[in-house]
């Protein structure tokens, strides 16, 4: 009986230690710096040099800003109301693409059913103790991620790539064509955000539906 009580006490203690060590983010800001590597040896400049991705979270709301020398792209999505927009600002053009729940799923279809396989490899990155995990997508490409289980994200819909990842991605990389993209955590901030951060612009953008945009892309417009 005494042994059972000791085991029970140790189990409760370990659970309390883990819950204390793990921090849950329901609201805040995450910033990643982006770097690229190309197989094209003749390329003298990196078009993505200085690029970054900023993720804003507030309950069911998420906003992701990707800024680079080429322009800016913002995705705002409300998981609770199943709607959102993509804002594209390139070469003086400003386009707003509206999103429904079905559009959101279709846009992320490439990552449907994604499963990460963890390995015993660990590494300290940006001050976090990280575990390595990899996932192979339907098109044969591979995503490699180092994540920390010390931070948990409440809103699993903010990025469907990491929906099933047991922690915060600290560094991840993937290949697109002959380019390899690496995202590295620059900072994380738990400060509250104003709801206006997730507002949709009322003017200044040409508005088009996701389906219309997909049709234009197929027709090369």
Which of globular, elongated, flat, extended, rod-shaped describes the shape?
globular
The total of beta strands comes to 14
Strand arrangement in the largest pleated sheet: 8-9-10-12-13-2-3-4-5-6-7-14
CATH fold-level name: outer membrane lipoprotein receptor (LolB), chain A
Task: Please estimate the helix content.
Answer: 10-25%
Low-confidence stretches: 1-20
- Largest beta-sheet characterization: 12 strands, mixed
Number of domains: 1
CATH class: Mainly Beta
CATH superfamily, by name, is Lipoprotein localisation LolA/LolB/LppX
Number of helices: 3
Strand share of the residues?
A: over 45%
In words, what does this structure look like?
With 221 residues, this protein is α+β, with helices and mostly antiparallel strands. It has a single domain, classed as Lipoprotein localisation LolA/LolB/LppX (outer membrane lipoprotein receptor (LolB), chain A, Clam), CATH 2.50.20.10. Helices cover 16% and strands 48% of the residues. The protein contains three helices and 14 strands. The strands form two sheets. The protein has a twelve-stranded mixed β-sheet. A two-stranded parallel sheet has the order 1-11. The protein is globular, with a radius of gyration of 20 Å. 18% of the residues are buried. Residues 1-20 have low confidence and may be disordered.
């Amino acid at each position: 009986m005494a042994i059972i009580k000791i085991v029970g006490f140790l189990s409760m203690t370990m659970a309390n230690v883990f819950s204390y060590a793990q921090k849950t983010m329901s609201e805040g800001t995450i910033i990643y710096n982006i770097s690229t590597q190309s197989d094209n040896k003749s390329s003298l400049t990196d078009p993505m040099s200085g690029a970054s991705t900023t993720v804003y979270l507030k309950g069911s709301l998420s906003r992701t800003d990707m800024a680079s020398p080429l322009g800016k792209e913002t995705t705002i999505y409300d998981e609770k109301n199943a709607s959102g927009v993509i804002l594209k600002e390139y070469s003086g053009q400003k386009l707003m693409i509206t999103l429904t729940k079905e559009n959101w799923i279709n846009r992320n279809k490439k990552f449907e059913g994604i499963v990460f396989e963890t390995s015993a490899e660990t590494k300290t990155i940006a001050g976090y103790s990280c575990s390595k995990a990899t996932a192979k997508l339907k098109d044969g490409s591979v995503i490699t991620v180092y994540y920390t289980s010390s931070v948990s994200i409440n809103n699993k819909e903010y990025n469907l790539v990491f929906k099933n990842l047991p922690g915060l991605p600290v560094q991840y990389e993937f290949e697109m064509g002959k380019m390899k993209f690496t995202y590295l955590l620059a900072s994380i901030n738990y400060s509250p955000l104003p709801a206006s951060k997730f507002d949709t612009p009322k003017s200044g953008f040409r508005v088009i539906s996701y389906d219309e945009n997909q049709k234009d892309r197929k027709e090369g417009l």
